[in-house]
Write a structure and sequence with these properties.
mainly beta; 18 strands
């Protein structure tokens, strides 16, 4: 099983058992995360309830890190039912997809004048702010690589030469987010004004 980083996952545990009196298990379920048999941490705890003869509870979580996770559900037990632990549930958290955008701070710039570009990198599913670096390109030539600040960065090109320009940004990706790229084509107007 797999899920993207930042996506809410729902872990559900069911406890089976019933006394002749009709009593069902009560207590709590604790979900724990293991790696190589070593406890990494607790994912969450929920209180059991019984509905139409099914005793269960669930935990919502969106903080698991990218990588492989071995999850186990432990039942606390109660006065009438013994504690127990489930088998392993293997879950892989993969990097979240990103969206990159590059724009200008003005609708036009005179030939030979500086042009400021704004890069924005965000998660496709609202999984948080990507970190890492963004590289600005002009006609395939790298202009510079910079660290994102709150998912964004502004960069000023000293001056654009005559002719058409294909401005692009590439995002490096990080531990939780995939890399991506975006292109903005700038066309000259009579070689003097770059219209955006």
């Amino acid at each position: 099983h797999s899920a993207a980083y930042g996506k809410t996952i729902y872990l559900v545990a069911t406890v089976t058992g019933q006394l002749p009196s009709g009593r069902y298990p009560t207590g709590t379920i604790t979900f724990r995360d293991f790696s190589g048999g070593v406890l990494v941490g607790t994912v969450g705890t929920c209180k059991l309830s019984t509905n139409k003869g099914v005793t269960s509870c669930n935990v919502a979580n969106k903080t698991l890190k990218v990588g492989s996770h071995t999850l186990r559900a432990s039942y606390s037990g109660d006065t009438y039912f013994k504690s127990s632990t489930s088998g392993d549930y293997l879950l892989s958290i993969v990097k979240a997809a990103t969206f990159a955008a590059v724009s200008t701070t003005t609708s036009s710039v005179p030939y030979g004048k500086p042009l400021t570009l704004a890069a924005l990198v965000s998660s496709m599913d609202g999984a948080g702010l990507p970190t890492g670096t963004v590289t600005f390109w002009d006609n395939g030539r790298a202009l510079g690589t910079f660290s994102l600040m709150s998912g964004a960065y502004r960069f000023t090109i000293g001056a654009l030469a005559r002719g058409s320009h294909t401005i692009a940004i590439t995002y490096s990706g990080d531990a939780n987010f995939l890399s991506t790229a975006e292109v903005l084509t700038l066309l000259p107007n009579n070689g003097l004004v770059v219209n955006v």
